[in-house]
C-alpha cells in the first residue's frame, strides 16, 4: 500500500498538471473532469446499450435533462449518434470528435452522449443554465429623459438588448475567447459597411493577442490593449447603457462585450465624448449645448480653482483687489498653516469621504459622505484649521467633478488636481500654466485605437465641432463624426430631411 | 531621402499656426522700445515693412523648398555636396538652437524680473526643458499640436490689446513720415528679430502633407503676426510718450498693468504666466527642428540627439546670468538671423536655381 502511494505520488510529480496546456485526448479529458465532484457520468439502465451521458451537474438545467433528454432516450435502442440526434430535437447539438470542441462545450453546460465508453466521437447538446440577475435600471450613468435599461452580466442578454436597438442585418458580432483559464467570451460588435475596417482589424488583432489567464471585467480586458496603459485618461468608454452603445455603433465605432461584465466598451473615443450623455440628444439643442458647456467648464473649474487659490494666496495676492482681499485675509487670519497644507488637508478629506461613500453599500452612502463633509468642514473652520473660503472652493470643485457622465473620467479629474496643487505651490500661476502644458501634451500624445484623443480640436475637424462642447440641431448631424473615420461618412440625406421638415408657415414667409 | 510617412505629417493649414506661433514669442513683450529709438513715431511703418519683407522671404523659402528635394539639409547636400553642405546645415541648425535658448532665457528673465525675483535660473529652465523633452519626444504631431494651442490659448488674451486705448493719445503719431526713409529702414532692425522663427519652415517642410498648398497658410500666419506687431507698435506709440517708451523695456507688460477688473488687478501676472504657452512652441519647434536636422545630417536617432541639445540649452542659459549677456546674445542672434534670412537664403536660391538649370541643359 505504502509503496503504491509513493509511486502514485511519484507519477504525480512526474506529470505536473499544467492548466495552460491543451488536453489532447478524450480519455485524458475525462480523467481530469472526473476529479470534480459535480461532474456526473450516467449510464442509464433503461436500455441494453451502454449509452453514456456526461455533464456538469452545476452547469446544466436539470429539468431539461430529465424531461427532454432522459425521457426520450428510455426504451429505445440506437445504432448511431445521428439516431440519438434525430430523436432529441435540440437546435444546438452536434456530433464531433475534436477534443477541444468537446472540452469547451462540456464546460459551457452541454451534455455529452457517447454510445460506448471507448468511442471517440460524441454528441453534444446544449442544455446549459446561466444564472444571473435580471435587467435593471442604469445606476452609474443615470439619465432622466432616456431609456431605462442597463446591461447585465450575461453576454447573450446584452447582445439581445443591442440587437433590439439596431435591427439591421449588417450588425456583425465576432466572437473571440480570452484567457486560458476563464475562456471568457468576448464579442466584437460593429456595423459592417459603416465601421472602419482598419479599426475592426486592429481591435480583433489586439484582443486575440492578449496573453492572460483570466478576465473578470471588460475594463480589465481593455486595460491590457489600450494604446497607452500608463495614462490616467481612459482611452475607451465603458458604458452600461444599450442606447448609448447603439448610438456609438451607428457612428461607425466598435463595441466590445465581455461575458460576465455589465459594462460595454466602445472604441475609438475622444476626450469630448466623455462629456456627452444620451440625454443630450433628446432635449432641445440649446439646452443640451448649455449643459455640455457646463460640464466642460466644471472640469476646468474642478481642476483649477484649488490650485489658483494656493497660487494666489501664496505668491500673487496683489492680483486680488483690496476689498476682496480683505474677505480672504479675515477668513485666513487664524489659520496656522500655509495655504498648500490647508488645501491638501481639505482635498484629502473630501477624497476620503468620497471613497468611503463609494464603498458603502448603497448610493445613500454618497449623500451621507457629502453631508458628513460639510459637517466636518464646518467643524474644521470653527477650530480654525481651514478657511471658509477654501471650504466653499473645495466643496464646489468636488461637486463639479461629479458632473462628468462617465464615472472613470470623474476619477481622473479628481486625481489630476493634486499635481496642479503642487505645481501651484512651487511656481504660482506659472506652475499652473506649466502643469496645464504637461496635461495638454499628455492629451496630445494620447491615442485611442491609434486615433487622436483631442479630436476634433486637434487635429482640427471643424465639422465635428457641432457635436463637441456644443450640440447643434440633429438635422445638422447628417455626417458621422470624422473621429470615428467611418467607411460610410454620410448618415442621412440632409436635403431630404430639410425638405420633409414640417415647419409652420406664416404670412411672413409668403 | 526617405519620404516621411503620412501618419507623421500634418495638414497644410497647420502651417498657419506653426509660422504664427514661432514668430510671436517673447519679442512681443518688448520689441517696441528699440524700434521707437531708431525710428521715433514712425516705428510702426518699419514694423509694417518688416512684416511685409518677411512675407517676401517666406515666398522665397517656398521657392527654394518647392524646387528642392526635401528640407534644408537635403537641399544643402544636393547643392554643396556632403561636406560643405553638411557644414552649412550645421551652422543653420546651431543658429536655430541658440535662438531657442535665447528665447527661453529671455522669457525666464521676464519671469524673474516681474514675478519671482529670487528664483534661480536653473530651476525655471530645468522645469521648462523637462516639459520640452516630453513634448518633442511625442513626435512632430505633438509639437505641432503645442504650436496650435500655443496660438489658440493665448489668443484669448487678445482683449488686453484694447485696454490701453482708453489712455491713448493719437497725436503722438503725427506728423507721419517725419523720419527719413533711412531711419525707418534702420528701425526695422529693432523688430526683425521678433519676426524670426518662421525659418524653421526649412526643416519641417517635409512633414507637411501637400506642402505646396501650405504656402498661403504660411503667408496668412506671417500677415497675422504683422498685423499684431504693427498694432502693438502703434499702441505703444500712442500710450507712451517718446521718453517713456525709451525706458520701457517690456512695453506691452507695462501697458497691461493698467488692466483692472472688480476681481482681478495686476493683470501682468496672468499675462506672464500665460506667456509660457507662447514661448513653448518657440522652444519645442526649434528643438524638434534641430534634432531632426541633425538626425538627417548624421543619421543618428533623434532620441539620442535631443538630450544632448537640451543639456546644451540648459548650460547655455545658466551661463547667460545677467542682462548684458542676454542682450549681447540677443543682438548676435538677431544679426545672424538677418544674415541667414536676408543674405544667405537669396544666395542659396540663386545657386540652386542656376544648378537646376545647368543640370537640365546637360
UniProtKB/TrEMBL annotation, chain B:
<keyword id="KW-0813">Transport</keyword>
<feature type="transmembrane region" description="Helical">
    <location>
        <begin position="12"/>
        <end position="31"/>
    </location>
</feature>
<feature type="transmembrane region" description="Helical">
    <location>
        <begin position="114"/>
        <end position="136"/>
    </location>
</feature>
<comment type="similarity">
    <text>Belongs to the amino acid-polyamine-organocation (APC) superfamily. Spore germination protein (SGP) (TC 2.A.3.9) family.</text>
</comment>
<feature type="transmembrane region" description="Helical">
    <location>
        <begin position="143"/>
        <end position="168"/>
    </location>
</feature>
<keyword id="KW-0812">Transmembrane</keyword>
<dbReference type="GO" id="GO:0009847">
    <property type="term" value="P:spore germination"/>
</dbReference>
<feature type="transmembrane region" description="Helical">
    <location>
        <begin position="83"/>
        <end position="108"/>
    </location>
</feature>
<dbReference type="GO" id="GO:0016020">
    <property type="term" value="C:membrane"/>
</dbReference>
<feature type="transmembrane region" description="Helical">
    <location>
        <begin position="332"/>
        <end position="351"/>
    </location>
</feature>
<protein>
    <submittedName>
        <fullName>Spore gernimation protein GerB</fullName>
    </submittedName>
</protein>
<feature type="transmembrane region" description="Helical">
    <location>
        <begin position="303"/>
        <end position="320"/>
    </location>
</feature>
<feature type="transmembrane region" description="Helical">
    <location>
        <begin position="220"/>
        <end position="240"/>
    </location>
</feature>
<feature type="transmembrane region" description="Helical">
    <location>
        <begin position="269"/>
        <end position="291"/>
    </location>
</feature>
<feature type="transmembrane region" description="Helical">
    <location>
        <begin position="43"/>
        <end position="62"/>
    </location>
</feature>
<dbReference type="Pfam" id="PF03845">
    <property type="entry name" value="Spore_permease"/>
</dbReference>
<keyword id="KW-1133">Transmembrane helix</keyword>
<feature type="transmembrane region" description="Helical">
    <location>
        <begin position="188"/>
        <end position="208"/>
    </location>
</feature>
<keyword id="KW-0472">Membrane</keyword>
<dbReference type="InterPro" id="IPR004761">
    <property type="entry name" value="Spore_GerAB"/>
</dbReference>
<keyword id="KW-0309">Germination</keyword>
Amino acid at each position: 500500500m505504502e509503496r503504491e502511494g509513493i509511486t502514485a505520488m511519484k507519477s504525480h510529480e512526474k506529470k505536473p498538471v499544467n492548466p495552460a496546456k491543451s488536453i489532447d485526448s478524450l480519455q485524458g479529458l475525462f480523467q481530469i473532469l472526473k476529479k470534480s465532484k459535480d461532474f456526473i457520468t450516467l449510464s442509464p439502465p433503461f436500455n441494453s446499450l451502454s449509452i453514456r451521458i456526461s455533464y456538469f451537474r452545476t452547469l446544466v438545467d436539470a429539468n431539461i435533462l430529465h424531461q427532454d433528454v432522459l425521457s426520450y432516450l428510455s426504451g429505445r435502442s440506437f445504432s448511431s449518434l445521428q439516431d440519438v440526434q434525430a430523436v432529441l430535437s435540440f437546435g444546438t447539438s452536434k456530433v464531433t470528435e475534436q477534443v477541444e470542441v468537446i472540452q469547451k462545450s462540456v464546460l459551457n453546460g452541454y451534455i455529452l452522449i457517447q454510445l460506448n465508453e471507448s468511442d471517440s466521437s460524441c454528441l453534444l447538446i446544449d442544455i446549459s443554465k446561466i444564472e444571473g440577475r435580471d435587467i435593471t435600471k442604469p445606476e452609474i450613468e443615470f439619465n432622466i429623459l432616456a431609456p431605462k435599461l442597463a446591461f447585465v452580466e450575461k453576454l447573450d442578454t446584452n447582445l439581445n438588448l443591442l440587437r433590439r436597438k439596431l435591427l439591421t442585418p449588417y450588425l456583425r458580432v465576432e466572437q473571440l475567447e480570452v484567457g486560458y483559464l476563464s475562456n471568457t467570451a468576448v464579442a466584437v460588435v460593429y456595423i459592417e459597411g459603416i465601421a472602419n475596417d482598419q479599426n475592426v482589424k486592429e481591435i480583433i488583432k489586439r484582443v486575440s493577442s492578449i496573453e492572460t489567464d483570466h478576465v473578470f471585467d471588460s475594463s480589465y480586458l481593455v486595460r491590457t490593449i489600450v494604446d497607452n496603459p500608463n495614462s490616467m485618461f481612459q482611452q475607451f468608454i465603458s458604458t452600461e447603457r444599450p442606447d448609448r452603445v447603439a448610438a456609438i455603433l451607428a457612428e461607425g465605432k466598435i463595441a466590445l462585450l465581455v461575458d460576465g461584465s455589465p459594462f460595454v466598451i466602445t472604441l475609438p473615443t475622444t476626450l469630448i465624448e466623455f462629456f456627452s450623455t444620451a440625454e443630450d440628444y433628446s432635449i432641445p439643442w440649446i439646452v443640451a449645448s448649455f449643459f455640455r458647456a457646463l460640464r466642460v467648464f466644471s472640469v476646468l473649474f474642478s481642476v483649477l480653482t484649488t490650485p489658483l487659490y494656493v497660487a494666489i494666496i501664496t505668491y500673487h495676492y496683489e492680483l486680488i483687489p483690496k476689498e476682496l482681499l480683505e474677505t480672504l485675509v479675515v477668513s485666513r487670519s487664524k489659520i496656522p498653516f500655509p495655504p498648500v497644507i490647508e488645501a491638501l488637508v481639505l482635498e484629502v478629506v473630501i477624497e476620503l469621504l468620497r471613497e468611503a461613500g463609494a464603498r458603502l453599500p448603497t448610493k445613500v452612502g454618497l449623500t451621507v459622505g457629502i453631508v458628513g463633509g460639510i459637517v466636518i468642514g464646518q467643524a474644521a473652520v470653527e477650530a480654525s484649521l481651514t478657511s471658509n473660503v477654501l471650504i466653499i472652493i473645495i466643496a464646489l470643485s468636488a461637486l463639479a467633478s461629479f458632473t462628468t457622465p462617465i464615472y472613470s473620467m470623474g476619477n481622473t479629474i479628481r486625481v489630476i488636481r493634486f499635481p496642479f496643487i503642487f505645481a501651484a505651490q512651487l511656481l504660482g500661476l506659472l506652475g499652473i500654466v506649466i502643469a496645464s502644458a504637461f496635461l495638454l501634451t499628455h492629451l496630445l500624445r494620447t491615442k485611442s485605437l491609434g486615433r487622436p484623443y483631442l479630436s476634433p480640436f486637434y487635429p482640427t475637424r471643424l465639422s465635428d465641432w457641432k457635436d463637441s462642447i456644443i450640440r447643434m440641431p440633429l438635422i445638422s448631424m447628417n455626417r458621422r463624426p470624422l473621429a470615428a473615420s467611418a467607411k460610410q461618412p454620410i448618415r442621412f440625406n440632409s436635403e431630404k430631411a430639410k425638405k420633409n421638415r414640417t415647419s409652420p408657415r406664416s404670412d411672413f414667409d409668403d | 531621402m526617405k519620404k516621411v510617412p503620412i501618419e507623421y505629417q500634418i495638414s497644410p493649414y497647420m502651417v498657419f499656426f506653426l509660422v504664427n506661433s514661432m514668430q510671436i514669442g517673447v519679442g512681443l513683450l518688448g520689441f517696441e522700445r528699440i524700434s521707437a529709438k531708431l525710428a521715433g513715431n514712425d516705428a510702426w511703418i518699419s514694423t509694417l515693412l518688416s512684416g511685409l519683407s518677411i512675407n517676401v522671404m517666406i515666398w522665397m523659402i517656398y521657392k527654394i523648398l518647392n524646387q528642392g528635394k526635401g528640407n534644408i539639409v537635403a537641399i544643402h547636400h544636393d547643392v554643396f555636396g556632403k561636406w560643405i553642405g553638411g557644414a552649412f546645415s550645421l551652422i543653420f541648425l546651431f543658429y536655430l538652437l541658440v535662438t531657442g535658448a535665447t528665447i527661453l532665457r529671455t522669457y525666464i528673465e521676464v519671469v524673474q524680473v516681474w514675478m519671482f525675483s529670487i528664483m534661480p535660473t536653473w530651476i525655471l529652465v530645468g522645469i521648462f526643458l523637462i516639459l520640452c523633452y516630453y513634448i518633442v519626444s511625442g513626435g512632430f504631431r505633438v509639437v505641432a499640436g503645442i504650436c496650435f494651442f500655443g496660438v489658440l490659448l493665448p489668443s484669448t488674451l487678445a482683449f488686453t490689446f484694447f485696454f490701453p486705448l482708453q489712455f491713448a493719445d493719437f497725436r503722438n503719431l503725427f506728423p507721419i513720415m517725419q523720419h527719413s526713409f533711412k531711419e525707418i529702414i534702420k528701425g526695422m532692425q529693432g523688430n526683425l528679430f521678433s519676426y524670426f522663427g518662421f525659418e524653421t519652415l526649412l526643416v519641417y517642410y517635409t512633414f507637411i502633407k501637400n506642402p505646396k498648398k501650405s504656402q498661403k497658410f504660411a503667408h496668412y500666419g506671417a500677415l497675422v503676426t504683422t498685423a499684431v506687431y504693427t498694432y502693438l507698435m502703434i499702441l505703444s506709440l500712442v500710450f507712451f510718450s517718446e521718453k517713456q517708451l525709451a525706458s520701457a523695456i517690456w512695453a506691452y507688460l507695462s501697458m497691461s498693468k493698467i488692466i483692472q477688473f472688480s476681481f482681478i488687478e495686476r493683470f501682468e501676472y496672468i499675462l506672464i504666466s500665460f506667456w509660457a504657452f507662447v514661448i513653448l512652441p518657440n522652444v519645442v519647434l526649434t528643438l524638434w527642428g534641430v534634432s531632426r536636422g541633425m538626425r538627417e545630417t548624421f543619421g543618428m536617432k533623434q532620441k539620442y540627439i535631443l538630450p544632448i541639445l537640451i543639456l546644451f540649452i540648459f548650460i547655455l542659459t545658466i551661463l547667460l546670468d545677467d542682462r548684458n549677456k542676454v542682450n549681447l546674445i540677443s543682438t548676435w542672434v538677431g544679426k545672424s538671423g538677418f544674415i541667414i534670412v536676408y543674405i544667405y537664403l537669396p544666395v542659396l536660391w540663386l545657386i540652386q536655381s542656376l544648378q537646376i538649370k545647368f543640370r537640365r541643359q546637360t
